Amino acid sequence: MKHFIVLFLLIAGFLSAQQYSSDDLFQMARNAAFNDKDYNKAISLSQQALEITPDYTDISIFLARLYTWDDQPEKAREIFKELKEKGTEDADFFLAYGSLEYWNDNNEKALEIVNEGVSKNPLSSDLLILRAKINNSDQNYASALADLENALKIDPQNTDARSLLTRVQSNGVKNSIGVSYTHSHFDKQFEDDWRISTLSYKRGTKLGSVILKLNHASKFGDSGFQGELEAYPRISETFYMYVGTGYSADVGIFPKFRLGASLYANLPKSFEAEVGVRHLYFSDGLWMYTASVGKYYKNFWFNFRTYLTPSSQNVSHSYTATTRYYFSDANNYLGIQVGTGISPEEQLNSLLPDGVYKLKTFKVGADYNFTLSKNNLFTISGTYYRQEYRPETIGNQYDFSLGYARNF
Fold first, then answer.
1. Residue-wise DSSP of 323-361
2. What percentage of residues in the chain have a pLDDT greater than 90?
3. Measured between alpha carbons, how far is 91 from 96 in angstroms, rounded to an integer?
4. Which region is the signal sequence (predicted)?
């Protein structure tokens, strides 16, 4: 009796499966994988579909992807090798196969696969982006940059390419010397304008970028210097850090000490996030905590940042929303910024005493970055502040900045 029941169920299951075409089963497998995250069910449905149509290449590629996502790389490789023996030349085949090897840290094999894929599908932006990821991982930044630029020519609004291009361009700079100048005018708060100039040197290393800065500022008829050292060490493909410190003997002009640290994460779907801390020491220490989230979308980058400054009585808040529109690469864009409160990241604000961070401020600004011959970077920016410089006393501040950097 038991054997009869088992046989009946098998026959019923077989007849039920025959009610669906391979396309129906393929769609059901995709729904199981993407909507339900049930890879076992998706694998079973894909296998049933291939029993009906064994040469359905798209389903075979999808099944191999499922094995990849389900941490069964050997089963995925078996399918990819069979497809290769059949002479499969679809861009999606090379993308899926190359991704498997890349995700399993087999960069040499992944590059071999993707190179063949690009040779057969030169207009595939997805393959170019994957090859750029592999080369970026191997610190072959020039090749990665070339592939991303080509991908954006094919698909100018590709979000993944835009997001990765920003990181690759930063990683690929070996040396950079820069100068900048910021001028601030106050209608009420101070009689004299403030000025700050910066000379910087950036060095790219295998661990990340290191930046040395020398700042000179003038205010109240006096002037002083500040030295800063910053670094952006890479931890992994996902995480990197910012660490920075500064010192000045001219405490009336700059804070005596400045310290900062942040952890950044490159998240899926072109999101990025940051959490960090900043410390300024004037006559007393001032601690600030920051967090931000960013998103690349086509030619745009959106970012929202907050600073929280605790005191004995309350917590002061600062919020800034930034939008950039990229014209070509990460060094050519128009940015707009709107916010409330004071940010210690803004160059001239390092001259402000600690009490200012507890007052109310509204700001709006714009900046334009562009390059000439790729290695010459220029920056023009302006910011307007409506600032409470004393409790319930409002003044206006106007900042204008120019910057130039030479990469070599």
1. EEEESSSTTSEEEEEEEES--TTSGGGGGS-GGGGGS-E
2. 72
3. 9
4. 1-17
Element (H, E) at 167: helix 159-172
Distance of CA 315 to the CA centre of its chain: 29
Tell me the CB-side half-sphere exposure of residue 253, using CA atoms within 13 A: 21
Length of the chain: 408
DSSP run (H or E) holding 306: strand 300-310
Q: What angle, rounded to 10 degrees, do the helices at 141-154 and 159-172 form?
A: 150
Instruction: Give, for 243, the enclosing helix (H) or strand (E).
Output: strand 239-247
The whole-angstrom separation of Cα 78 and Cα 70 is 15
183 has pLDDT over 60: yes
Question: In degrees to the nearest 10, what's the CA dihedral of 152, 303, 352, 381?
Answer: 40
What domains does the chain contain, in order, with CATH numbers? 2-171 (1.25.40.10), 175-407 (2.40.160.40)
Average pLDDT of the residues in 273-288: 89
Contact status, residue 195 vs residue 401, Cβ threshold 8 Å: no
For residue 296, the surrounding DSSP H or E stretch is strand 285-297
Question: Please, which residues have CB within 8 angstroms of residue 358's CB and are 6 or more apart in sequence?
Answer: 309, 311, 316
β-strands 315-326, 333-340 pairing: antiparallel
Candidate ranges 6-10, 132-136, 165-169; pick with highest mean pLDDT: 132-136
Residue 167 neighbours by CB distance under 10 Å: 19
The residues pairing with 304 across neighbouring beta strands, listed in sequence order, are 293, 321
**HSE value, Cβ hemisphere, 13 Å, CA-based, for 188:** 10
Query: Are the C-beta atoms of residues 250 and 224 closer than 8 Å to each other?
Result: yes
What's the rounded Cα separation, in Å, for the pair 179 and 379?
Answer: 10
Helix axes 125-137, 141-154, angle to 10 degrees: 160
- Specify the pLDDT at position 19: 76
For 315, the token pair is 């917590």
Count of CB atoms within 10 A of residue 171's CB?
20
* Strand, helix or coil for residue 36: coil
Of 251, 254, 252, the residue nearest 196 (C-alpha): 254
Question: 321 in helix, strand or coil?
Answer: strand
Q: Which of 225, 243, 245, 227 is nearest to 235 (CA)?
A: 243
- pLDDT band of 406, cuts 50, 70, 90: very high
pLDDT 10s digits, 363-387: 999 999 999 988 999 999 999 999 8
Residue type, 406: R
